[in-house]
Specification:
Helix content: over 70%
Family: Belongs to the VTI1 family.
Distance between the termini: 157 Å
Membrane topology: Single-pass type IV membrane protein
Main location: membrane
GO biological process, one term: protein transport
Structural class: mainly alpha
Number of helices: 1
Protein name: Vesicle transport through interaction with t-snares protein 1b
Order of helices and strands: H
């Protein structure tokens, strides 16, 4: 035990500590680079999401406008359908009245 060299032992520990410090420093540098790349990717994603949001909002406004147009068209079609139905009823009533008048005239002309 007497030949143990404390200087070599301390030197070895210092070298090992330095290697650990260098590895840690390199690991921190890699982590920092990854963090920077992740931040850039995040900014790109946020920008793309903002563009997509604007596109979706424009699409939503167009759909709302189309929906309003469809609602107006639907109410116009319902009104047209009602008018066609009323016109058919009036036409049937006119035909029935003409038949009654014709029967009445035939009765008055020939049977009297």
């Amino acid at each position: 035990m007497g030949d143990f060299n404390w200087d070599d032992h301390n030197r070895q520990q210092v070298l090992q500590g330095r290697q650990i410090l260098e590895r840690t420093s390199a690991s921190l540098a890699r982590s920092n680079q990854i963090a920077i790349e992740t931040e850039q990717t995040g900014h790109e994603v946020i920008s793309e999401l903002e563009v997509q949001r604007e596109s979706l909002l424009r699409s939503q406004r167009r759909l709302e406008s189309a929906n309003d147009g469809l609602s107006k068209s639907s109410s116009i079609l319902r009104a047209m359908h009602r008018n066609v139905l009323y016109n058919k009823i009036i036409l049937i009533m006119i035909i029935v009245m003409e038949v009654i008048i014709l029967i009445g005239m035939i009765y008055l002309k020939f049977l009297r």
